[in-house]
Amino acid sequence: MSHRPRRSARWLAAAGAALVATLAPALPAGAATSGPLPLDTEDVITWGVKPADADGPDGRSRVELVLDPGASASEHLAVSNFSDVPVTFSIQAADGYINPKGRFNMLPSDRESTGAGTWIEVQDSVEVAPDATVVVPFTVAVPDNATPGDHVAGIAATVKSTGEGGGEGGTSVGVESRVGFRVSTRVTGEVQPLLSVENVKASYAPSWNPFAAGDLTVSYDVANDGNVRLGAEGDVATSGFFGLLSTDRSAASIPEVLPDGSQRSRVETSNVWPLGPVRSTITVTPTTVDDDQVDASLEPVTVTVTTWAVPWPQLLLVAIGVVLVLGVRDDRRRRRQRLEAMLAKARDEGRQQAVGDEPSPSGADSPAAKGQPKG
């Protein structure tokens, strides 16, 4: 990692990033990570931190220990300064966790550790000359009352920048950059691998093409209720129309879930037709991480969730069809009624004309009737 300090407006923009912590599991040969120095220098500070023995880096990417309650182990870390100036690094240890992106990190310095981060004893700082490496010893001491299972922490070398305007009425901006690695300790005792599925949600997104299927999204948390770190393989089987219609199965994997931690998983299934209730069966199977030896059965857990896939586009199409049918029927009825009315009117007019053209039965049109003499 490389970092070059920036002044004025650029550092003001960085104010919201105070106490940023960047933790890498290890740095490969030739790579480096940097943190900012105070703003009164233009030097670029780059450094690396790796597990080590008393002679220097030993090729490990992390420290992994197996200890009994009350036992301790001595370890080392190597801090390499790739810069052209001497740098004094702070050495910090803190509880570890897996962030939402699935990467390992350690608690920032403004949060108090309560777990394995408190088991690590190390000096507060170390000064490293330009282009030099210093080996720093540290100790991992397991408390007598530590519970069996995996306990994870991180240890890092840190540099913190200082901001401008630190006088009266001014502001001071500090950004913490750190590089380190994971320290995992498995406390001996009974191993209990156990996952659970929580906060299950399912939602259906229809296709507005009435002749196309929609998409189903299922999300859930995989929580580690046991005492060892585990991975997880998730399988989601979806069925609709009261179980008579099934879709393709979808899978998702989670690389690692630490004890007392959880990771969110999301699975999308396409080609789901909106035929009422859609049932999704989630099966999560625990897996070991990095070839861990877990002397216990890894039992899968199954959870079912149901959501409604309402066929809105199809209902809209049916509604439009019904409206058209009713409109055509009403138009035909109105046409028929007009025709019948015209026919009735024509019949009435015909009858009236026929009555007007008939001779009078009393002979009103005869000469006698008109008062003319006979003969």
UniProtKB/TrEMBL annotation:
Coiled coil: none annotated. Residues 343-375 are annotated as: Disordered. The chain crosses the membrane at residues 308-328. It comes from the Bacteria. Residues 1-31 form the signal peptide. InterPro entries: TAT_signal. Keywords: Membrane, Signal, Transmembrane, Transmembrane helix. PROSITE patterns: TAT. This is DUF916 domain-containing protein.
